[in-house]
From TrEMBL:
Protein's UniProt name: BON domain-containing protein
UniProt keywords, alphabetically: Signal
UniProt key word Signal: yes
Superkingdom to which the source organism belongs: Bacteria
Species for this entry: Pseudolysobacter antarcticus
Entry-linked InterPro entries: BON_dom, Lipoprotein_DolP, Transpt-assoc_nodulatn_dom_bac
Residues in BON domain copies: 39-108
Signal peptide coordinates: 1-24
């Protein structure tokens, strides 16, 4: 019985020791590099947020991507007015250099 408890304690110690080591290794983020600048990620998130809170726009139908400040809107909305409104909302976000809405169409 004592040997079983010692074996279980040893096994738990090995498992827990491995977990803490792997977490310690993961905390060094200096080598990790993103291909997408933080500003592009922030712009995409902000545009999506603004579209979601704007009356008259079905934001679930609009996909947003950003590369070097160029925001691309794609999808299909109900009207040309919604396309224009979505473009205006995107242009108003800080950091947006240009908005490409060629892939955003309307059903009317």
């Amino acid at each position: 019985m004592k040997q079983q408890l010692c074996a279980m304690a040893f096994g738990i110690a090995l498992v827990c020791g491995g977990v803490s080591t792997s977490f310690a290794a993961d905390t060094d983020m200096s080598a990790a590099k993103s291909e997408q600048p933080v500003t592009d990620t922030w712009i995409t998130t902000k545009v999506k947020s603004e579209l979601a809170t704007t009356d008259g726009i079905s934001s679930m139908d609009i996909a947003v991507t950003t590369k070097n400040g160029l925001v691309t809107l794609s999808g299909q909305v109900n009207s040309k007015a919604q396309v224009q409104k979505a473009v205006a909302v995107a242009k108003a976000v800080k950091g947006v250099q240009k908005v490409d809405s060629a892939a955003l169409s309307s059903r009317d």
